[in-house]
């Protein structure tokens, strides 16, 4: 197993968690990658003390809580009761080198489709897409439509799509580097409110193809996030009122 590290912030009442992870490598290791995600999701725990943003503190930024290990028993289950910390968050973003590859396609075929920018066909060969569709990993999470070339594997310091690995192993290009998220929506048309306190939408999802310092191309995603917030002073005023009963 590889691993992950998380950060949690509070924006008014809602909680947002960001998890950077590196899952198991190699084409055939799909089940190991799925298990890596499951382990990270179930066992990542945060300290109970964290600062929540309010109007007066917004200018100072946000604070994060350190990742803390959660003990487990011999079966691998968490020993404390209740749902995982990540399940309690209003928004969760997973990003990093997930290592899912393209299946049922040769190196030369993949290179040809990339050069033609035939990403629709290549997406049908994406292991992560297939595993998510089957409900085996990243359950309840979503990803923007991929419109950029596969981000792995490249020769370092060689620009452009000609930089794909041409060594002895000739690793098949793949979208190893991904960003997925979930918010509090129960349906695509849910609106932000007290019953749905955080709604996110994707503004941009792209790969930084000009970066040549790594054999991966980094990806970035820009979100617009609507946060439902009840004014605490109004809430206190309402709680202090006397209501007649008949």
UniProtKB/TrEMBL annotation:
Region (Disordered) residue spans: 64-84
Cross-referenced Pfam families: Exo_endo_phos2
Biased composition (Polar residues): 67-79
One MF annotation (Gene Ontology) recorded for this entry: phosphatidylinositol-4,5-bisphosphate 5-phosphatase activity
Xref: InterPro entries: Endo/exonu/phosph_ase_sf, IP5, IPPc
Superkingdom of the organism of origin: Eukaryota
Protein family: Belongs to the inositol polyphosphate 5-phosphatase family.
Protein name: Inositol polyphosphate-related phosphatase domain-containing protein
Organism: Trapa incisa
